[in-house]
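Researcher: Next sequence.
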Amino acid sequence: MAHLAFFSEFMRTDFAVESNPEKWTTIYSAQEHFMATTIETPSEQVSKQLINYRTDSGVAVIELNDPPANTYTYEMNRQLDEAILKARMDNDVYVLVLTGTGDKFFSAGANIKMLASVDPTFKYFFCLHANETLLRLEHTPKLVIAALNGHTVGGGLEIAMSADIRIARRDAGKIGLPEVNLGVLPGTGGTQRLSRLVGKSKAIELMVTGNTFSFEEALELGIINDIYEREGFMENIMEYARQFCPPNKAAKAVGRIKRAVQTGWEIPMESALAVERENQQLLFQSEDAKEGLAAYVEKRPAEFKAK
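Model: Next structure:
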């Protein structure tokens, strides 16, 4: 919910004298457009398509669609939740890719205008539903890749951190959790997921300072996995995603690796090892495991079928 904090940060004098004024002019223009597009009421948003969904060769692409900043409302989260379930239940989908519409923002977080128009009880349940939606991504035994096509701040980063892999577009924007500048905390899982990525002390520092930083810094910190060049960004993302689909990889094994890590991370080692064994047993019974072992013995490439 930190898009206003993010924009206010760019209005400070020290940013105004940075060496690339054209870059910040673009951001200011986006801010003006952004503020003009966030005055819609929740009822007006109900009729809008706020999530774009498509599939391509085993990959489901889920696109946050409320430009320019792709801020999320309760209605967008409902559509996002539905898209996640659709991809989960589709036996021909093996990988999910999350991205944002346009080339300026992945997402600037929650829509402050929407939050300002509702009561505290609604805000609480809004946060609860957002938590449940992002947990659904983590619970789905299919790989989730966040393609960060632009600024990824506040709740936008919280969405991205619920993905298994995060890949950013070079020089596409800033990243961070600046909610403290609004007098609140990152309330869509930010306090928990960031600390699991970078460690407790560093996570606290990043959140209490409220600074945003470059994708290069995020890569060094381990918040993102890679940075792709601007040219052909989504094409390269899709190529990367397709390597985890059959016949290239055993998609069931990919999904079970994810589930073993996601579940095991939160429980004692002995229990986590039990989860690992149970997932392994499920894979031992799969056709892909038989194919993989046979291909190894016969010294040939395996042809996986996600079965």
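Model: The chain has two domains: 3-242, 251-297. The first helix runs from residue 3 to 10.
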